[in-house]
Amino acid sequence: MKILLTAVNAKYIHSNLAVYSLRACAKKRGLSVDVREFTVNQPAGHVLEEIYLEQPEILCFSCYIWNITYIEGLIRDLARLLPQTPIWLGGPEVSFETENFLLSHPEVTGVMVGEGEETFCELMSFYEHPEGKNLEDIRGLVFRRQEFAAETAAGDGMAEKEMTGKEMTGKGTDIRAGRELVRTGEREPMAMDDIPFPYEDLEHFSNRIIYYESSRGCPFSCSYCLSSVDKCLRFRSTDLVKRELQFFIDHRVPQVKFVDRTFNCNHRHAMEIWRFIRERDRGVTNFHFEISADLLTEEELAFLGTLRPGLVQLEIGVQSVNERTIAQIHRHMDLTRVKAACAQIRRGRNIHQHLDLIAGLPEEDFESFHRSFNEIYELRPDQLQLGFLKVLKGSYIYENRKSYDLLSGSLPPYEVLSTRWLSYREVIRLKQVEEMVEVYYNSGQFPASMELLERASEDAFLLYDAMGDFYRERGYFDMSHSRARRCEILLEFASSRQFAGVCRRRPEEEILRQTLTFDIYSRENAKARPSFALGPPPSRELRRKWEERGKSRHLEWFTREFWRFLETFGGLEEAVWQDRPGAWALFDYDSRDPLNRRARVTPLKGEPGSAPDGCGSGTD
Fold this sequence. Notes:
Elements: E1 3-9, H1 17-28, E2 34-39, H2 44-54, E3 58-62, H3 68-81, E4 87-90, H4 98-104, E5 110-112, H5 117-128, E6 141-144, H6 146-153, H7 165-168, E7 174-175, E8 181-183, E9 210-212, E10 215-216, E11 234-235, H8 238-250, E12 255-258, H9 267-279, E13 286-291, H10 298-304, E14 312-319, H11 323-328, H12 335-348, E15 352-359, H13 366-377, E16 383-388, H14 396-399, E17 407-408, E18 416-418, H15 424-442, H16 447-456, H17 460-474, H18 483-494, H19 497-500, H20 509-523, H21 540-547, E19 553-559, H22 560-570, E20 582-592, E21 599-603
Parallel strand pairs: 1-2, 1-3, 3-4, 4-5, 9-12, 12-13, 13-14, 14-15, 15-16
Antiparallel strand pairs: 5-6, 6-8, 7-8, 10-11, 17-18, 19-20, 20-21
């Protein structure tokens, strides 16, 4: 029997842990299962062709907020092209209000609800050997009774009728008025060690992120998150985890991303794994963990400071600094400890930190979010993710959305539109801030230039807000821009009325032109010299002298004022430009920072300090 598990990912670089875990469990039971992965960026017609040519006898899809709309379109056509093929869905996007979903999607045979490994294996075994078996005996299913499935296939259709809460939440077998749908009993959580390792073959994972779980469930009950629904926190034994991580290290996998909801909630478990990856590190694999910073102990913080730069990256969900908001979302967080831990990690300069904020939470108005942004921005994470509340079916915040006057998008990803505290116009402004933070901060392409503008501004949030207003006024959100063009736009912004409204003093254009040039060459040895560069390139003799020592190098001259600024920003060891109008900078692309991939920059002491023709004088 041809069983096809289908994943539709957000990007090619992502992989779908769920389908590979299901396949591994099926293989352990002697079942043969094929897997196909696609992305939402591929033409739906092409994906339809590929699935049809597989000629599956059973077709299963893994459903999330980023792919459910795409999958709905596919299954409508697949049900007509493959009328004899049962179509089963699973995943968080169909595990809540499942009966309503099935009533509005008659082409779907049924849904696997909740944890899927055991349910999937029993369901596939039923299809392989149905003799003497009954679907109603398989826990974790909501499905259409056979006689109604036959009616649907014949084209009679089904009434799309809302089910009451009582009908939808019953335990055991739940048949609406004895008619279309059956909900079987809940599936008990399985032991983590019973889940087979899903990555015995890495052939299909070249240049892709590997996802891995060492625990399921979450000790917290955040009202916006579906992880809080799973109250059973379970861990995979560390001996088993170590063997599997060694497999990734041996195969030189670039990145392993743990999907554990709060990796460090168990101190012993976390430390044992962190010690192992330090001991076995070969300088290639990076491990990503989602943690709670306020749970980090002094021992853990000290240990993290000993890791190779780039071995580990940490994602830390702060969400808000508003105490009323934190209480409303049922989150427990010691903000003082969070800030102290993040600051200590940053001082170590060896771990990439990714901090999260969520806009649209209860009790958080525009000014409150303004404060949250600035307080977290001051921690200077490598990335600051400004996300927007997604009102997920099954979450506490979804069930209580009316009490918050919460409006969200009617289609996935169900993002917040407005709340009692935040208008839609303010959401639009925050969307603009988000885009500016992504382009000018999270990209890591403009660090010196943004530092210069931030120092001249009243605060960081107002700066990005003004940039968003400038982009919208000029129509720049509707265009695509090269990196060099983004630099030119920043120069335009620095002389705009929007920047004038938030700055205490305007930085000199000559310094900003130099920071932009510095930012360009810190990332790449640009083939085309930037139009805003302060002066001509170095002489042929000077280039020959330094480039013969290494091919991946670039020379650029900067004024004394720029070097003074850079000293306060980048921590240069000595002021080589003292009593000189400026100095040459050597950008070495063979020696990059392992966290931000910027080239090593060295001011040249032994070269003439006079300004090349066309450069600023550098005098006070």
